[in-house]
């Protein structure tokens, strides 16, 4: 009898533990993630590679070769996707005349970025969520504009991810606006991204996040020969260049050196990406970018926007910035043959899940404060309703000061919460939550006066 009772108790415990809801997935987002197709991604890259070179200084008049033809092809793809959007998606090539700069541009060119804008359904919601990749490619010599530069992974992969997100998301609607951006001039000095970031700053675009995708479709490294298609890196800065004066002093006093907007975005990318995409781990790297390299998120970072770089875990330098050739039995060149399209599918889905969750979520809660007027082993937080979106409640996030990620969530429908955890021992943040359980970015509380 004791054995039977033990077995029944074990079965009961098993059913209880596995009946619990571990995470809440938005059914619409989960469906969109399933639509992301490795075959579609491969077809985009085949088309881009077929233009021979997409060097920024290459021909813009040849219909079959060069960056001009490649940009028009991207625009045509966006326009095709726009047919599914009921008029909400529009696309164009945003151009500017760029003069010789004495660096990597030796002639006057028309610099062009291809943008598709999926307009938000809430006319009062000015938020913009931006995903980016770069269309241009290069060979060993950065000024070689004539010979073939396939650029399958750098950055055919990022451009393909942007295109696929646009394809899937075009038939859905979101309260906030999403911009799908494929820029030129990355290999010549982040030129297209610099143009866009400066324009956005000058025109006061309400860009909440920038997800920059660059080199994200191959699973093996040079030298170390590591093969792994289950992890993807997200690079983020800890502090903004704009964090000076009293802001910097406040950051030091509160120990918030690891809580800048880009770092918060990286945490968000990890949580949401791993929630919706199977067999992927988003690895946060506490740097804005790799050594000796740069990416198109940096101009946005320098203009005060929250921007991160998403890049494969193990880079292969035989396949980056290399002429296609074979030396010492090593094949060099950025060829389609070295791509892992299932890995690229997962990494693209990480982007899509984050864009969709952000664009469906309300704005961040307003005026988030922590009370510090007396000594106590509690934490009292209060906030105001967000400026945009329908909110059903709020998450209070908590983590130890040494933890890279949020460890606990507390839910409330109120505009204040008192927790039996000391504010001296933990970091806290507050998120708005929509009726379909989509969370805003977290807001670290400021000290109430």
The proportion of residues in beta strands is 15-25%
CATH fourth-tier homologous superfamily of the largest domain: Zn peptidases
DSSP helix fraction: 25-40%
- Give the integer mean of the pLDDT values: 94
**Rg, Å, rounded:** 23 Å
Structural class: alpha/beta
Q: Strand order of the main beta sheet, please?
A: 1-2-4-3-5-8-6-7
> Any idea how many domains?
2
C-alpha termini separation: 64 Å
Largest sheet: 8 strands, mixed
CATH class of the largest domain: Alpha Beta
- Can you name the CATH architecture of the largest domain? 3-Layer(aba) Sandwich
For the secondary structure, the number of strands is 17
Question: What general form does the structure show?
Answer: globular
Task: List low-confidence stretches.
Answer: 1-22
Count of helical segments?
A: 10
Query: Can you tell me the CATH topology of the largest domain?
Result: Aminopeptidase
Q: Which sequence of SSEs, written as H and E, runs from N to C?
A: HHHHEEEHEHEEHHEHEEEHEEEEEEE
């Amino acid at each position: 009898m004791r054995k039977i009772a033990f077995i029944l108790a074990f079965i009961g415990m098993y059913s209880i533990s596995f009946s619990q809801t571990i995470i809440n997935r938005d059914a619409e987002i989960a469906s969109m993630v399933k639509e992301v197709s490795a075959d579609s991604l491969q077809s985009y890259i085949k088309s881009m590679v077929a233009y021979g070179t997409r060097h920024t200084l290459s021909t813009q008049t040849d219909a079959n070769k060069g960056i001009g033809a490649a940009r028009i092809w991207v625009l045509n793809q966006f326009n095709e996707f726009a047919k599914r959007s009921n008029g909400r998606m529009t696309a164009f090539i945003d151009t500017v005349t760029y003069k010789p700069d004495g660096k990597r541009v030796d002639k006057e060119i028309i610099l062009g970025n291809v943008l598709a804008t999926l307009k938000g359904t809430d006319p009062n919601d000015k938020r913009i969520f931006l995903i980016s990749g770069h269309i241009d490619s290069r060979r060993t010599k950065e000024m070689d504009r004539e010979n073939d530069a396939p650029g399958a992974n750098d950055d055919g992969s990022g451009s393909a991810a942007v295109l696929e997100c646009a394809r899937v998301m075009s038939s859905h609607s979101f309260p906030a606006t999403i911009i799908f951006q494929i820029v030129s001039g990355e290999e010549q000095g982040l030129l297209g991204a610099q143009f866009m970031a400066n324009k956005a700053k000058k025109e006061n675009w309400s860009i909440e996040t920038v997800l920059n995708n660059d080199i994200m479709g191959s699973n093996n490294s040079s030298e170390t020969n590591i093969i792994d298609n289950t992890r993807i890196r997200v690079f983020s800065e800890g502090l903004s260049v704009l964090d000076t004066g009293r802001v910097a002093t406040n950051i030091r006093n509160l120990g918030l050196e690891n809580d800048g907007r880009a770092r918060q975005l990286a945490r968000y990318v990890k949580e949401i990406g791993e929630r919706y995409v199977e067999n992927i781990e988003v690895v946060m790297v506490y740097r804005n970018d790799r050594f000796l390299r740069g990416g198109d998120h940096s101009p946005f970072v320098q203009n005060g926007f929250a921007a991160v770089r998403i890049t494969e875990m193990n880079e292969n330098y035989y396949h980056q910035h290399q002429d296609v050739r074979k030396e010492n039995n090593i094949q060099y060149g950025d060829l389609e043959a070295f791509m892992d399209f299932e890995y690229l599918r997962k990494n693209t889905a990480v982007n899509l899940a984050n864009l969709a969750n952000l664009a469906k979520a309300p704005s961040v809660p307003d005026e988030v404060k922590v009370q510090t007027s007396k000594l106590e082993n509690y934490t009292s937080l209060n906030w105001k309703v967000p400026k945009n979106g329908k909110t059903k409640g709020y998450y209070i996030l908590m983590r130890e000061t040494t933890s890279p990620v949020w460890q606990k969530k507390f839910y409330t429908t109120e505009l204040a919460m008192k927790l039996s955890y000391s504010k001296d021992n933990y970091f806290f943040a507050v998120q708005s939550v929509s009726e379909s359980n989509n969370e805003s970015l977290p807001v670290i509380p400021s000290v109430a006066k």
